[in-house]
Amino acid sequence: MSALEGKVAVVTGASSGIGRATAKLLAREGASVVVAARRADALDDLVSEIAADGGEAAAVPGDVKDEGLARQLVDTATGRYGGLDIAFNNAGIMGEMTPLPDIGIEGWRNTIDTNLTSAFLGAKYQIPAMLERGGGSIIFTSSFVGHTVGFPGTADYAASKAGLVGLAQVLAAEYGTSGIRVNALLPGGTDTPIVGDFAKTPETRSFVEGLYAMKRLASPEEMAKSVLFLASDASSFMTGAALLVDGGVSINRT
Hints:
This protein is an alpha/beta fold and 254 residues long. It has helices at 17-28, 40-52, 67-81, 105-133, 155-175, 193-198, 202-210, 220-231, and strands spanning 8-12, 32-36, 56-59, 86-89, 136-141, 180-187, 242-245.
């Protein structure tokens, strides 16, 4: 039997990168998946790909900063598939990428709201639905940035991602006896459009890869496998963790 047979999952930031790869893998492992992102056309393509692979998925386009989307995702999961077992709160942005004095208040708020407040909103509606199922797994996409490494120019991003670790720890403590596990995934550099925007030249990409002990970036599919681990019973005694999947960037000095 597949690892997630009969389970229902929500994945945000599913139009590309880690979110897209994870949605496809969770569906392949038997979960019915509700996917969210701002680009409706990309979500429709994803749903079609999942269906062609024999899976089940529904698209709910929208902005994760909108509380209504958080409610709609859970309503879709429960109304269409009967409940909610897994939530991968993954949507995020890099922020303004500038020294702190140059970050505008609107830019700061947009980064915090997109990366951190969206996870709060997601969990606010996901937790009651999971309690009705007797438990579940909530996963936040945090980062090694703000946890083990401080990159200049990433104050808003780092603050938002560090906040996700704290949020995961508190929720893990609050709901540990209710069967809900809450963990944070801390990816290293992954070959996604966001990294492509940062490493625009071969020289920049080579520099970024050189920061890692493995001297390469991850594929989205590698990160998806780590999400599957946190979503499944393979991690049944794991909650409140900040799981580094970072290719050794946190420990590398070579």
